[in-house]
């Protein structure tokens, strides 16, 4: 089969590779229709890791060496294990994260914190290929009313859903989202769909315009010199950029007794005024990945009702043009079955 295989920094090859293994009783083999590219894929491509095990064997997946990328994939079941729960021909989407089900976090329902957690497309071979075999437990069915392009967004939408749950936002309340790219934009749409009043701050006026179309009530372009926003007194603030300036902004915008949810992953150590948070009892929470069995079906439901792909997806490219997608310029989906 044809697949996009990462061999090292800047070395991604579209090449012929062996077909995936026959599914075990609890697995399915998917003929991939769409696979999304995200910032993590671009980072791994540029640096050859560190999440992709190209130099050292991954402790939980056991994988080492060139890796088929792709952790945002959907398609059709071509083979199903006897205990998979999906019929051949069913359209499904994968959450991509694998959990053990036995460790304390798994038993507590926090499968995203599994001690043996690993991700298809990062820790082992993923879905940027004609076929992929994965555990059925990490998949959700896609109804007829949900297009392939929308279904391919389910994994990142699940991350937004999980962040909203971590925020424990009261109904009919207001939130601020700092950073309207990637997961931030999806968070805006998911929050607006829940009836929340969403305010958005970002450096980019184009992203702010998109946020308004996705349901933001008000937006503000952040001053690039001061890094400041006029938003103040919000009970819940989501920081999705991962920038230290974003965390400082979130602290300023949150009301005493309010809550900050850090969603964006900083590239290094981020400093902000913890004393100010302590004296005003501002809670700081974090959000990582998603709880697949809860958040993935919720994401598919949202994408079945809202056509987010029309706003979020910048282009759909065939697999042979994946390098164009990695060059940036908005959200890219790869049509695995498409031809140049």
From TrEMBL:
<feature type="domain" description="Alcohol dehydrogenase-like N-terminal">
    <location>
        <begin position="25"/>
        <end position="144"/>
    </location>
</feature>
<keyword id="KW-0479">Metal-binding</keyword>
<feature type="domain" description="Alcohol dehydrogenase-like C-terminal">
    <location>
        <begin position="182"/>
        <end position="304"/>
    </location>
</feature>
<dbReference type="GO" id="GO:0008270">
    <property type="term" value="F:zinc ion binding"/>
</dbReference>
<protein>
    <submittedName>
        <fullName>(R,R)-butanediol dehydrogenase/meso-butanediol dehydrogenase/diacetyl reductase</fullName>
        <ecNumber>1.1.1.-</ecNumber>
        <ecNumber>1.1.1.303</ecNumber>
        <ecNumber>1.1.1.4</ecNumber>
    </submittedName>
</protein>
<dbReference type="Pfam" id="PF00107">
    <property type="entry name" value="ADH_zinc_N"/>
</dbReference>
<dbReference type="InterPro" id="IPR002328">
    <property type="entry name" value="ADH_Zn_CS"/>
</dbReference>
<dbReference type="Pfam" id="PF08240">
    <property type="entry name" value="ADH_N"/>
</dbReference>
<dbReference type="GO" id="GO:0052587">
    <property type="term" value="F:diacetyl reductase ((R)-acetoin forming) (NAD+) activity"/>
</dbReference>
<dbReference type="InterPro" id="IPR013149">
    <property type="entry name" value="ADH-like_C"/>
</dbReference>
<comment type="similarity">
    <text>Belongs to the zinc-containing alcohol dehydrogenase family.</text>
</comment>
<dbReference type="InterPro" id="IPR050129">
    <property type="entry name" value="Zn_alcohol_dh"/>
</dbReference>
<dbReference type="InterPro" id="IPR036291">
    <property type="entry name" value="NAD(P)-bd_dom_sf"/>
</dbReference>
<dbReference type="InterPro" id="IPR011032">
    <property type="entry name" value="GroES-like_sf"/>
</dbReference>
<dbReference type="InterPro" id="IPR013154">
    <property type="entry name" value="ADH-like_N"/>
</dbReference>
<feature type="region of interest" description="Disordered">
    <location>
        <begin position="1"/>
        <end position="24"/>
    </location>
</feature>
<dbReference type="GO" id="GO:0000721">
    <property type="term" value="F:(R,R)-butanediol dehydrogenase activity"/>
</dbReference>
<keyword id="KW-0862">Zinc</keyword>
<keyword id="KW-0560">Oxidoreductase</keyword>
């Amino acid at each position: 089969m044809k697949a996009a295989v990462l061999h090292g920094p800047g070395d991604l090859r579209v090449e012929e590779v062996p077909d995936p293994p026959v599914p075990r009783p609890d697995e399915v083999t998917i003929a991939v229709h769409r696979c999304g590219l995200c910032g993590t894929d671009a980072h791994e491509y540029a640096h050859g890791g560190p999440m992709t095990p190209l130099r050292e064997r991954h402790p939980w997946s056991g994988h080492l060496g060139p890796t088929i990328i792709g952790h945002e994939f959907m398609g059709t079941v071509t083979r199903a294990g006897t205990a998979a729960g999906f019929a051949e021909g069913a359209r499904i989407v994968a959450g991509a994260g694998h959990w053990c089900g036995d460790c304390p976090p798994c038993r507590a329902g926090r499968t995203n914190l599994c001690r043996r957690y690993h991700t298809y497309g990062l820790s082992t071979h993923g879905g940027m290929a004609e076929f992929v075999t994965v555990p059925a437990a990490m998949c959700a069915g896609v109804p007829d009313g949900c297009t392939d392009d929308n279904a391919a967004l389910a994994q990142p939408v699940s991350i937004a859903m999980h962040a909203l749950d971590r925020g424990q936002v009261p109904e009919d309340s207001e939130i601020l989202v700092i950073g309207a790219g990637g997961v931030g934009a999806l968070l805006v749409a998911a929050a607006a769909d829940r009836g929340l009043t969403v305010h958005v701050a970002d450096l980019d006026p184009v992203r702010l315009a998109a946020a308004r179309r996705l349901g933001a009530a008000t937006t503000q372009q952040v001053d690039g010199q001061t890094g400041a926003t006029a938003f103040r007194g919000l009970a819940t603030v989501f920081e999705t950029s991962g920038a230290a300036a974003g965390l400082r902004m979130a602290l300023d915008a949150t009301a005493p007794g309010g809550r900050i949810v850090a969603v964006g992953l900083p590239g290094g150590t981020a400093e902000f005024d913890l004393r100010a948070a302590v004296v005003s009892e501002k809670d700081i929470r974090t959000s990582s990945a998603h709880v697949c069995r809860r958040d993935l079906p919720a994401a598919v439901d949202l994408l079945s009702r809202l056509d987010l792909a029309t706003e979020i997806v910048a282009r759909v490219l065939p697999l042979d043009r994946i390098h164009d997608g990695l060059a940036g310029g908005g959200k890219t989906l790869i049509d695995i079955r498409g031809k140049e």
